[in-house]
Amino acid sequence: MFVYRIAKREHAALDGLGGMYGPGRWHEKGNLVIYTSEHASLAAWEKIVHVSSFENLPDNLLLVKIEIPEGIEIQSVPEKVLVEGWGRFPFTNETVNYGTSFLRKKEHLALKVPSVIIPDEYNIILNPLHADIKSCNIISTARFIFDMRVLKDHS
Questions:
Q1: How far apart are CA 112 and CA 78, in angstroms?
Q2: Which helix (H) or strand (E) holds 105?
Q3: What is the pLDDT of residues 27-81, one digit of tens each?
Q4: Contacts of 61 (CB under 8 A, 6+ apart)
């Protein structure tokens, strides 16, 4: 399986250091985590919604394509975690606690979670502390520049 992420050049490695600096829907601040998406296009949307303004998009972004080897079991988030309002901000305790527990237990490499942005698509959370992270390969990294038509002010 291939997954994608758009990251600053300094966070392109599969070390999960980005999770140390801030919280996310699926982790508490201070936990190593790698957020990826099933599709490069979803990775782009995820990046856009997580910046406060388009002017804050860094100019050193890379599209990182990662291969998760066949045979690696990918966990799915249980429905009971997706309580009413799970996709809102601020993040719900259910998603943050479940994802943080997933990372700390180190039982599985990957967790499949629904995208808030495109509900029929999924993000894959990778645990860089799981032994199977060593079997994942970065297939490619390429400079990623958002098409300025996406960033236009349409008001």
A1: 10
A2: helix 93-105
A3: 999 999 999 999 999 999 999 888 766 677 788 999 999 999 999 999 999 999 9
A4: 6, 7, 8, 9, 47, 143, 144, 145
